[in-house]
Amino acid sequence: MANTVPPPSPASKLCRIIAVVILALIVLFGLAVLITWLIIKPKQLVYRIDSASVHQFNQNNNHLNATFDFIVKAHNPNGKISVYYDSIEVSASYEGQTIAFNTLEPFYQPHRNVTRLDAALVARDVALSEALSRDLKQQRTSGDIGLDVRIKARIRFKVGIIKLKHRTLRISCSPVKVHMSSLKSLETTSCDLDW
């Protein structure tokens, strides 16, 4: 008597077909993503601060009033990706305390473009701790104030006619040397990105 193998059940055939279809879809999706990436060749956005100055600096009774002006350069090196900046918040902090803040106008940045952003951050009667006030006075006497500049933006990428969903972009520029004298020139400060 010969041993015969029973034919596979219809349920096991169905499971195999479903597994093959799912595997094929995963492979096709992976190929589509790879081909899209190779065509678009996305590059990292680049930001830097080219200029920093301060006006109407007044520190009295542990309170600060000043206007900090920064020129931020936003570089989109991508050939096929443009960027919509829908909201932009810029803040300057000293030793962890935010001392000045402002929002910038939304804008559209085409591909392969460098956009100059003029950010005037206002410190209006900002209360400082005694230690922070003392440190700030010492730095001011030395001629430079070291600040951390942070930018938070809601952006959307556009590839061809497709606009992708909003993302929050966080940019950190540190340390930015703000010269108290206009005779000194600023060393350009590069910025780091955090998605």
TrEMBL record:
Keywords: Membrane, Transmembrane, Transmembrane helix. It is a single-pass membrane protein. The chain crosses the membrane at residues 17-40. It is found in: Membrane. It holds the Pfam family LEA_2. GO terms for biological process: defense response to other organism. Residues 72-174 form the Late embryogenesis abundant protein LEA-2 subgroup domain. Its main location: membrane. One of its GO terms (cellular component) is plasma membrane. The keyword Transmembrane applies. This is Late embryogenesis abundant protein LEA-2 subgroup domain-containing protein. It comes from Dovyalis caffra.
